[in-house]
Amino acid sequence: MKLPSILVLSAILVASELLLAVGRRSKTRQSNAKDRLTLPLLWAVIGMSIWAGFYLRAVFPQAAFSHGRTIYLVGLVLFFIGLVIRWSAIIYLGRFFTVNVAIAKDHELITAGPYRFVRHPSYSGALLIFLGFGLCLLNLLSFLAVFIPITIAFLWRVHVEEVALREAFGERYERYARTAARLVPWCY
Fold first, then answer.
1. How far is the C-alpha of 125 from the C-alpha of 40, rounded, in Å?
2. Most buried of 16, 42, 61, 143 (most Cβ within 10 A)?
3. What is the pLDDT of residues 21-70, one digit of tens each?
4. C-alpha span between 138 and 185 (Å, rounded)
C-alpha cells in the first residue's frame, strides 16, 4: 500500500488552512477584534517551522527515526484525526468560528459537542495535525522544529482567546473553564 507523501500532506494542510483563512475571517471591524496579531504570528511560525523541518531533514539525515514506516503511519493517523477534530469543532461552532480572535455582538458561549471536553478543540486538532506532520518528516530534529514552535504559538493564541472570552462572558466562561480542559481532555 502506497502512503501519501509528506508533500501531499503539506498540500492538504495548506489547502485546509487557506480555505479557513479566506472563508472564516471575522467581519468584525479590526478595532473590535481581539486577535493581538496572533493570526499573522501563527502563519509566520507555521511557515518557518515547516521550512525548518524540511531543511533539517535534508541536512541531518542521521537524525532520522528508526522504524520509519511505523512512525509515518502513526503520524499519518494523528494528522488525519487532527483534521477531523479541527473541522468538527469548526463546523460545530458554526458562524461563531473565525480565524481571527473576535467576539460578535450576538456571540454565544458554546459548551456542547466537542466543546464539552475541551475549550479549544479546533486548536487541539491543529496541534494533532502538526504532531502527526512532524512525525511524518521522519526526523527527530525536524519533528522538534515543527512541533515545539507551533505549539508555543498556539498556546499564546489560546491565552489571547481566553482573555477575550473572559472579557465577553465573565463568570459564565469561568464556570465553563472549570469544567472543560483547555486543550487535552481531562488533562490540560
1. 19
2. 143
3. 776 554 444 434 677 788 889 999 999 999 999 999 999 999 999 999 99
4. 27
